[in-house]
Every structure is written in structure tokens, then in C-alpha cells.
Amino acid sequence: MSFLKLLQPPSLHLHLHFNHNYNHRSLYFHHQYHHSHRILTQPFFSKIHNFTSSSKRIVVSSILQTDDGVTSSNSDSCSAEHDNDDDVRIVAVVGEGAISPLKSASWLDVMIHTAERLKWVDEQYEMLVFTDNISNSNQNLQRELTTANILLVISVTDPEPVEWIQRYTQKIPNVVCFDSSPALENKLGGSSVNKKTKETAKTILESWVRYNSDDIRFCLLLIINSYIKPVPILKNLRAQGLSTLNCMVKNCGIQVLNCLLDPNCRKALQCLNECSPVDQVCNYQCIASYESPILEEFSLCVLQKHNCLDLDAKIPEKPFVPPMVKFRGEPLSHETAEDLFIGWLGKTEWSWRVVAGQNPAYDQFPCQYQLFYRGKAKGSFWYEPVFQVKTLDGKLVWRRRKYRVKRGKVVGTFQFSVLDNGVVSNENWTVVDVADDLSWGLFHYSGAARVAGQSYTGAVLVSPDGEYPNDGEMSGLLSALGRCCIKDWELFDVDNRSCSGPPLGLPEGSRLHTVVEVGDLK
């Protein structure tokens, strides 16, 4: 999948007025939500360190993987003094027992996982997670706060911890509070939220309320990038100004003019301009809603051919996800791995249907079908996802993409590439696990649309009918998710209820399985 953000030059900019009301002292809001998703049993992978009987601290940076399992390193290494002013030292305090909107996962578990995901960006980012069961005599926590440069407070409302936080966090330059007492003051860059920091605060709030692990991590990365040190993966948030405009006029004048004169293409630009540059859901929905040959020509020229925005996103290297090594008791081969992608195609009109996925920008789309097949040419392999899009004017339309697939060096890994609305995306896919009876499978991917400045990771849980595997398969599924460093509460369920008339079918001369025998669908 690819995600496109067109930053309009000054002469094309649409002047938007926001009437966004929030308390500058606290990004304080309450939410109501219900849970219609199937909830999986979540294993607890983290070790909790108790300083006192009344204070709980989780130090993700001190957890090491050994041959014997998970053990804790010397706690002194986690609380050592830091001499470098641009070290990233984050403390998170969450309400004890507080439940998040992420499939009822506790905020404690969500923030522990966020600390782990921060290290995918930079191993030096340290985040310590505490509950609000705090004692005034807790010298260890006080010491951590004296060296912290970011404090994140979530669902803390009881007077005692609120007063404690107010007393011991006055010197922390960046404090952001969610669902907490309005008595807690937010700070960015060393001062209360003001005219200078209002836009950053607004972006943080908008990202947080999307309630997914990517955006929660982004909130912290944005604070780091804005007030502590540059974050390389966020460099693509900055436009190039006149250099972008000059590039567009010099190289793509006809394509720009055609787009501005076409109502549909112009709507696409207006829609994209209203999206936050980090809201991949909004950006991709704009593209899918208004895609057209004129928009594709515009993007192909401005972005893909001339890179007028001067962007350069890389495919994420972390997390490292190993492929499955055996299927039905036999070592996995390239041919078998391809057959597992092909799945049920031949017995049904599709290879797989997507049950759920980890990437919010893609897995919001209903009725996702996967078509994998061998091409007519020797050695060719293709992937065509078919999915519905609810356009911004309320219509349901079908979309279909076509990826070229090549084998990776390691059996069970593949390289995908696609031209999506004028922008090339490259992705690395891994066959993580597939049940022997093909009742379910899990595929992981990491990718980048280089010239659009977007990189991403995700995974898709698939089955022949779009339903979750039965309870007897859940332990295997949880194990596979763990190898992807994904928690079950990160998955977004795909709406597979109203899926009549998908544009399926294969090109003439397509070939299917060569090794794997596929039984009848039960």
C-alpha cells in the first residue's frame, strides 16, 4: 500500500480556519466507546519491578532476552545519571487499572509496548512506565523524574497522585496529560501551551485520539523531534517551500494545470490539504475516494519522476520478523511459500480474505480479498488485493491494486512493488505462519513510498472466509503475533459483512499451486 501527501505550494494553498476548543493547560478530554471486536487472551510478557509496596515501575530498557527467557538486567543501569542534554528520557505515569480504548487493553500494557516500539526508532530512547500508586517517600521515582525530559500522564485523576505529580515534575520541560485531572498542566518546550506551541499540541491531540499504537508512538516522537533532538523518520514532515513550487512549474506544469482544472483531482488536493501530514488514514482515504488518471499523472510527475517534495522514506528495518521454517512437517521452500500465499484460490475465487490487520491506514477498508497467483511468464508471481472504500461522499466503491512479487534471499520472505496512484511503494513481506489445514495465516510487511515520505509496517491475519480461527487455534495465532512484536489489541477487525460483487478473476494464463495440496473448504 502507498500513502500520498501532496503539500501544496503557497500559491495553491487553501486557507483553512480551525475552531478547535481545548484547554491549553491540559489536553484533557473524556471519551465513550464500546467494544464490538473479538478480544483475544493476551499473554503478559513484561517483568514488573517493585520499588516499594506502593509503587510499581516497569523499565522496558532493562529487559533482556536470554537463552533461558526474559530476565532483568542490573537495575542500576536503568537509573544511571545522564550527562548528555539531548538524551531522550521519558517517564509515563498511568492510572492503576485504567483501561484504554484499544480492545480493553490496560494503559499499563499499552505504554509498556509503546516503550518497546520506541526502540525500533532509536535504541537510545528510554521510557520508564509507572502506575499512579505513588508514595511520597519513593526516592527512586523522584530520581527518575529529575533526569526526565518528557512526562506522559494518562488517566490519573485521584487527588494524591495528582498532587504528587504537581510537586515533583515542575522542572520537566515537556508534560502531556490525557484523560487526567485538569489540575495537571501541560508544557511543551519548557512552558505552558501557548501561541508558539499550539499547533504542535493540536497535532499531538489529533494523533492521540486515533487510538492506535502507531499514533501513540508518533505523539512521543513529535515531542522529541520538536523540543529535544531531530528524529530522522520525521524529517519528511517539513515542506520545501519555493523549491517545491519551482520544481512543479518547471517539470510538471501541464499535469498541475490539468489537475487544478479537473473537479475530481482538485477535490483530491483539497482533501489532502485538510489532512494532518501524519494521518495516513485520512491521506489514503482521500486518494482512494478521488483517484483518477489525472491525479495519477499529477503524482507520477510531481512525486515519482521529479520528487519535487525532496522526500526519501526508507523501509523500516525493525522489528525483525522471522519466517516460518516448516509446513506440514517439511522444511519450507520457495515454492511452498508461494503456494501458501495462493491459499484457497482454485477452491474459491480468492486466495484469502483478511480478518484483521495491524495497520490502521489500510485495515479500515471493508471486504478485503487477496489474490495471489503465478503469472504466464516463467518465474513471475503477482498479488492483487481487492477491497472496498467508503468515499468521503458516502459511496461504497471497489478498488484493486497489482503488485509484482519477487522471492527474497531467505525462504518465506518476498519483495513486493506497486504503482499506486502514480507513486511506487516497495514492501518486504514475510510468511509468519499458516495452519496446516490453511484455516488461517499471518503475513507481516514493512514498506515505504519513498518519494511520498511514508514508511510503515503491519501484518494481516487471513482466513478462507474472513472469520477468526476457532478457539483451538488461538495459542498458535498469539505465538505468531508475538514473533511480529504485535499485541492482539493492536489488530483492527475488517468489516466483512456486505461484500457482494467484488471484482475478482485472474488474467488468462495464470497458474496456481505447484506443491501444496489444498483440501475442500469446510
UniProtKB/TrEMBL annotation:
Coiled coil: none annotated. Pfam families: VDE. Residues 246-469 form the VDE lipocalin domain. InterPro entries: Calycin, VDE, VDE_dom. One of its GO terms (biological process) is xanthophyll cycle. Gene3D superfamilies: 2.40.128.20. GO terms for molecular function: violaxanthin de-epoxidase activity. This is VDE lipocalin domain-containing protein.
